[in-house]
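B., you asked whether I could sanity-check this one before it goes into the benchmark set. Here's the sequence:
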Amino acid sequence: MSHDHPHEHGHDHDHGHHRPDPLTPAEARAKAIESLLVEKGLLSTDAIDAQVAAYEADIGPMKGAKVVARAWLDPDFKARLLADATHVIEEVGLAPSTNQLVAVENTPAVHNLVVCTLCSCYPWAVLGLPPTWYKSFAYRSRAVIEPRAVLQEFGTALDESTEVRVWDSSAEVRYLVVPERPAGTEGLTEDELAALVTRDSMIGVAKVKAPALAAR
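And here's what the prediction gave me:
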């Protein structure tokens, strides 16, 4: 499957992304290795928890949210981000991506959705830990076949005129969605805007809510 162009589809169907999948062989192997390292005293559970917390908080998705907020406020930055996200994220204090990072922008005419059909390739450096549903077979298969139905089940309704583009991540290329800036945020600072941006909106399954709605 090509990673150079998005998929464009749209149908309705039942979505099973909320049902937990059994551990994949890689996940089971990782858990076994973790247990062995802890048992032998080579690694502590506290160290593991600290690393997980770092990815959940310090590493992302707040870092990605800062990138989005800057793009909303600075058209020149957004243009550079869309041209070369891999290195431009350094301008907001992030390390350059170890994989090629591609930023795609949502507009009223185009909505972008990110998936990894082969496994669960994901921009950890800007979004932190991937959600469980992102790794599920249901999401990985249905996001490409019937993206509008998947979006609807996440509560994201689109106009029929809006084109849906599905981007397939790989080991070499990862994607960051720049969601639409919600109305009513014209007077907010960069930090206030970043606080509105969610991980799901940067994957493309959700839209960013206006402050009054986000507080509910």
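One thing to flag: The beta strands are 100-105, 110-115, 163-168, 173-178. Otherwise nothing jumped out at me.
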